[in-house]
Design a protein that fits this description.
Length: 89
């Protein structure tokens, strides 16, 4: 979560950051979410990007974030797929 706060410092209001933190916490605490630094930081970056691109409705932002996270940050992803994503990181 500290990474998320660092990404938003000086860019978003405290209320906007609070919304992102709530969504971040709900998604990263799902049992399927891969709990590693790559996944958490990657998800934080994507969450901030989605918000800055105009997806500011919390319900929509959370839904999109969940779908994206299931695809790229699933703890059950294959080793080969995970290696490719980490190489991009």
């Amino acid at each position: 979560m500290e990474y998320l706060k660092g990404l938003t410092k000086g860019i978003l209001s405290s209320n906007e950051v609070d919304v992102l933190i709530q969504i971040y916490d709900r998604v990263t605490n799902q049992p399927w979410f891969a709990s590693n630094a790559y996944s958490r930081e990657g998800f934080a970056m994507r969450l901030v990007c989605l918000f800055r691109y105009g997806i500011v409705n919390p319900a929509h932002l959370e839904r999109i974030s969940i779908v994206w996270s299931l695809k790229d940050f699933d703890s059950n992803m294959t080793t080969a797929r995970g290696a490719k994503l980490k190489a991009l990181y």
